[in-house]
Amino acid sequence: MNGRHQRRRQIHLLATHGDMSLSAALHLLKRFVYPGPAAWTNFLRYVLLATGLGFLLAGIIFFFAYNWTGLHRFAKLGIIGGCLIISVLISLNGSLLLRVRRWFLLAATILTGTLLGVYGQIYQTGADAFDFFLAWSVFSFGWAIAARFPLLWLGFIALLNITLLTWLIQRHPELNSLNALFLSGTLNGLTIWISLKWPARISNASIPDWYLNALGIAAVGFQTLAILNGIYNGGDVWSPLCYALTALQWFLFTRYGLLRRSIFWPALLGLAMIILIAGALLKISNEASMFLVVSLIVAAGAAGLVAGIALLQKKWENGTR
Questions:
Q1: Is the entire prediction scored with pTM above 0.90?
Q2: Which ranges of the chain would DSSP assign to H, the alpha helix?
């Protein structure tokens, strides 16, 4: 449970048990929980910074796409290399805020991939998609270690996912799709465990919930697709092991969510189970009557999931398990 939600719960408990007046509770909520003008100003500052860097990087990439034939190869490499060096130098400027410097390291990571792509197009190195994303991942690892910026780590993990999938597709096309999707889901599950095991490598402060939630969506999403693939296309000798390990990982996710009192994990896994049940029923029959049954089951499952989450949240708010 994040710090803001924890403070709100503590203030709520003090107010309901008579240890604090309602006016004092409202004052503390406005001061420590609900965002004020300073918090919104800080939020807008970084949103505008991220938007500006995003448009700048997009402008650089589209500049090359539009003027590709009119630029000499040294000009292409020089412009990208110069932007990369400038981004790194700005990130090393100690007079800037740490968050601003991290954003420029994120820009350097994106420019690294752009430089590799431009180099490959100029000299026609013959590298396929796997080689490109593998090199991008290797060179981005240093930026992620240096920045300790969760958003940069999320980008690096996305590169690892693409690298793994392109490796499986291009180098091992004989591998069953179920196993490939399962490996991608397991990769994201392992990154969650690594992030919780060594949080100081990910962020100077506590790891934000959105970072873990994004990894959880990727892990459960890939594994749900793997199981659906097995339902519709069949598996192989490794499929039972994939199913067993997926069940184990989902159990650990549920346990983690309950320990942290986070409704995200039960909701995510409940949604995955509804999708799998609907997919299995549609595999049995795709007639109109089955679509009606599936619609009713999905509606009932969604209503039950919402009711269960609301009940669980109410118990946590009252300080019980």
A1: no
A2: 3-16, 22-28, 37-66, 73-91, 98-123, 129-147, 150-171, 177-197, 209-233, 239-260, 264-284, 288-317
